[in-house]
Amino acid sequence: MGEFEEFAEALLDQISVEIDEEKEIAKLSEKIDEDKEFPNQFIGLESFSKEIFPDICKKVEEFTGFPIKSDLRIEFPDLKEFKLLKGKKVFATKQSRNFVDELFSAVADLDTKNIAELIQKDTEKFLVYSTYAKSYISKISTTYGDYLDSCVI
Length: 153
Prior knowledge:
By secondary structure, the protein is mostly helical. It contains 8 helices and 3 strands. Helix 1 (3-14) packs across helix 6, helix 4 runs antiparallel to helix 5 (97-108) and helix 5 (97-108) crosses helix 7 (123-138).
């Protein structure tokens, strides 16, 4: 294994706890859905959110006095899409934007080979933007939401 692959594995190792949490949460969610003896029934997040969204907007506007943008919306991306959206929040130069998007995609896919290729392509950018990937992606299992371009995610 070359040094670029070792760097790639080191990056994934640094967020492995969060990745393991994501897998465990998904497994538990499936088990709850399958367990007919589970005493509580959960309302789906999407339907619940869409139901209360207008009231929440109204209450926020009443409380703050600030109008709520008419194009505000809620979206429910899958986990990979959510990780890619986190990458969009990274402040990157025009020259670095594509690199950041590729890095977040490779990390979301746990693609050691692609990460190693990105390191080899531009080590300096990797050293800068991998810190964002670690920070932003490692918080996903505890934040479960975000805001970008008039969209609650």
